Amino acid sequence: MKARSLRLLVLLVLLASFAAATAQEFDWRRFEGSEIRFMMNRHPFTNWLEPLVPEFEAATGIKVNLEVLPEDQFRQVRLLEVSSGAATLDGYMIMPGQVSAQYLGAGWVRFIDDLVADPSLTMPDLDLDDFFGGAIGTFEDDGKLFGLPLQIESSLLFYRADLFESAGLEGPPETMEELMDYAAQLSSEFVAGFAMRGRGAAATSQTVNLLYSFGGEWLDEDGKSALASPESIAAHEFYAELMRNYGPPGPTNLHWAEVTSLFAQGQAAMIFDANVFRPIMEDPAQAIDVVRENTRYAPLPAGPAGSVPGVLVWGLSINHASRNVEPSWYFIQWALSKENQVRLALFGVPAARASAWANEEFQTRAPADWIEASQISFENGQPYWNPPIIPVAEVRDAYGQAIVAALEGRDVAQALQRAAQEMDRIVERTR
Amino acid sequence: MKTASSWIDRHARFLFPLPAILAIVVLIVAPVVTNFVLSLYDYFVGGRAYFVGLENYQRAATDPRVWNGIKNTFYFTFTAVPLQLLVGIGIAVLFNRDFPGKGLARTIILLPMVATPVAIALIWALMFNPSLGVMNYFLETLGLSRSLWVAQSSLAIPSLVLVDTWQWSPMIALILLAAMQGVPTEHYEAARIDGASGWQSFWHITIPGIRSAIVVALILRAVDALKTFDIIYVITEGGPGTASETLNVLAFKTGFTFFHAGYAATLLIFLMFLVLGVAVLLNAIRRRT
Questions:
Q1: Which residue, among B258, B260, B267, would best test binding to A if mutated, counting the most A CBs under 10 Å from its CB?
Q2: Do B242 and A401 touch (CB under 8 A)?
Q3: Is-contact B233 B120, C-beta < 8 A?
Q4: Domain A32-152+312-380 classified CATH 3.40.190.10?
Q5: What are phi and psi of A66, to 5 degrees?
């Protein structure tokens, strides 16, 4: 009797472990019949993804509803839905550099470490190490992951090889002093030596590259604004001198569209803006011939603290209130798989996986110097291209006022002092 | 059936205006009241709403950016509207006489008014570009020096006034033209017989004849100009810095970019009283004339 029950027990244990073993196999069809809803920004990634969703639905039996909104409305509606805690939203696109302070602070993100650790829920070749350090780093909070990156971008120096040659300059400027010196030599009555954004709040995503490279930071050790630090003042005085002396007329009007148009129309010898604008310089409808033939790319020149570009990362996260966590995780894994990141890269979006950049076909599609300069930036990248606080937009606006003041020739230190005070006031006021 | 219809008959004076009253309550009263209630809260969208009483009003009254916004709102409105009135009168006079192709020309000058404001604004933004824009090309063709247009703080509002004038003068012209056609031709004939010059008959017959239409056009335009949003937001976003930031643009940024819903509601109450004040003032002038 005893022996028999023991045998039965052994059998049961064996059966149970067999069942566990089969359950541990990752199975794409495990959540067949479920339905998920993701909120997306009208971004090139979304344009690429939409027509491919039926592939995922056919492979998994999970129905996906994508709700796509233009960026401004997307941010507003996402904020309302996520903060409401409604379970109707399962996941969303997110740019952690913009909202992570708010989303983490409020506990609105669903950490995914438990999912990643479970081999029955995570595909075998997810390979987290394949994502660029600067990309996946933005999704880490205290060593825990709250999403995966889908694209990474960074700003590069675009320059004209022909103008460099006729000015007797060899290769791109490697330091900030060289940048100033080259800009002086390249600027003429018809061509600006250098251009970058200057339009208040919109310029801050670019001037932050100078801030970091001059050794500046957003916040000091006490969490107060560090915009008026000596490093920051040096960075912005450099910026003002560069733009006022060698920039195009009316620098306070420059957004990315103006900056890239100036370069595409041959009116600027060097510009500094996002690497994703390369297609403009290759498009016969937008760029003149001499620009199409002579555009070269280099990483941000090094300042006193080195070359520290900000990286801008979009990714996908699961909503904290979702009741369909596993199917949502399936969708994210599929959308950001190695194969799909290659397809995304070939579609023209800078993928977040190193393997996509190593793809041979992709390498033939983009100039080697652009690929190399981009990759260097992604590895050195600083994910906080926005201040790590909650009221980001309002602080960018206050900082933008200082940028305009600097470009209009007013006292840089004073303008930054005011911006720093305003920044602290704004943070204090937001509760 | 009979009782029902007699009930309706007896209460017709309440029942018939009911749909209109409902529409006013739902579309005007409710939002204004909600907005007022919101203005009593410190509400950062995504966070909690804290009741703060009139604190937002105190803050707004001492906020230099709000005063800058009010100043810009008046600067914009009181440069744009008189200018549009002059151009509008000019166009109306021109179209009040016969010439070949008049119908076609009249349709064409109405185009700026019916086009989508955001599309117009995007095109003007391109035209104003100091390096690539066509406006500087025109200036140079005329032998004038280049301008920075909206890229220079002191020129930002005048440039926007130019766009607004281009867009809205036709509306004033349309209103005044209708009024001019109502001025009896006998008056002009009598004046001509008495030897009045064209200028005299314009000044002493046309203008008095269309005075009330001018005031109506002024009220409509002024109220609208105080609330201008699309062209300012698209062309300058209130910049450079805050050089062209009107109260309306500031309220939008506060609410939809900075996410401070309570404070934005407060600014909109300010704007409402501002518009109301100007409308009442202009109306008083109209009654006196």
A1: B258
A2: yes
A3: no
A4: yes
A5: -100, 130
Residue range A226-276, pLDDT digits in tens = 999 999 999 999 999 999 999 999 999 999 989 999 999 999 999 999 998
Burial class (CB in 10 A: 0-12, 13-18, 19+), A177: middle
Q: Does domain A154-310+389-429 have CATH number 3.40.830.10?
A: no
- pLDDT single digits (tens) A23-78: 568 999 999 999 999 999 998 899 999 999 999 999 999 999 999 999 888 988 99
Q: What is the domain partition of chain B in residue ranges?
A: 2-38, 65-288
CA separation for the pair B46, A215 (Å, rounded): 33
CATH of domain B65-288: 1.10.3720.10
- The closest CB to that of A431, out of B44, B132, B258, belongs to B44
Which residue type does A73 have?
A: Q
Using DSSP's 3-state secondary structure scheme, residue A173 falls into: coil
* Helix, coil or strand: residue B238: coil
Question: What is the Cα–Cα distance from A294 to A292, expressed in whole angstroms?
Answer: 6
Neighbours of B215 (CB within 10 A): 17
Amino acid present at A149: P
Angle between helices A412-429 and A392-407 (to 10 degrees): 170
With contact defined as beta carbons under 8 Å apart, do A183 and A259 qualify?
no
Structure tokens at B73: 């709102």
**Spacing of C-alpha A316 from chain mean position:** 12
**Contact partners, residue A199, CB within 8 Å, separation at least 6:** A252, A253, A254, A255, A258, A400, B237, B239, B240
Q: Tell me which chain B residue has its CA closest to the CA of residue A247.
A: B131
Rounded to 5°, the CA angle B188-B190-B192 comes to: 70
Select the residue from A81, A102, A252 to test the B interface by mutation, using most B Cβ atoms within 10 A: A252
Alpha helices for B11-63 (secondary structure H): 12-15, 18-24, 30-38, 55-62
**Predicted local confidence at residue A7, as pLDDT:** 62
Identify the CA nearest to A381 among candidates A131, A32, A54. Answer: A131
